Amino acid sequence: MKTYLIIDDEPIAHDIIKGYCDLLPELTLKKQCFDAIEALSYLNDNEVHLIFLDLNMPKLKGFAFLKTLSNPPKVIITTAYKEFALEGFELNVVDYLLKPFSFERFLKAINKVFNSKDQENNLNEQQLKQPDTIFLRSNKKYLQVVVKEILFLESAGNYVKVVTKDKTITVRDKVSDLLEKFPEGHFLKVHKSYAVAKVHIKSIEGNRLLIAEHVIPIGKIYRSGVDALLK
Hints:
- The chain is an alpha/beta fold.
- The chain is 26% helix and 34% strand.
- The chain is built from 8 helices and 15 strands.
- The two termini are 38 Å apart.
């Protein structure tokens, strides 16, 4: 389970964020704080994996609060003020969401938090290297997919086919963008239209490889990456 804290002085913002998080079973709310002072008090005795942080709050502004934390968890900024985005990323926030934001945009931020390469604070190392699941949007709904069951990704025009052990999920995305949501090194690009899960490769022969019962072509410019597996 990944725990989170909401810090925002607007009740409607709490309702929206909590409503989105309730759709993701891996996220567990620990506390809703309506100003940064309340959050500081809570964090003195408790830890969370993620903070949703508003900027324009009474008593103590969002960035001022963030600067007081010596070892902060991951932070997603949720604000109506786009002009502070640069400062946010200078403080190493994971993402900067402008209100109002859609669930799709919210989900992209969540995937960045728990699949990012520099995770180290609160989640154990095994979780970081291999997140258990990922949410993918297909046919206007979000499907939770077990990462280790994904065999390969296949580009199909403006869509990507995510082929697992028992089904194929079609996602409106690019292979290159989708790969960023997974741990570095989990997939290998072997063709302009294919990226394969290295752990599922059964055999490599000539200009093709076999995954389960699927034959995947190996493009010339990707050959060196495949050959590196054999060394």
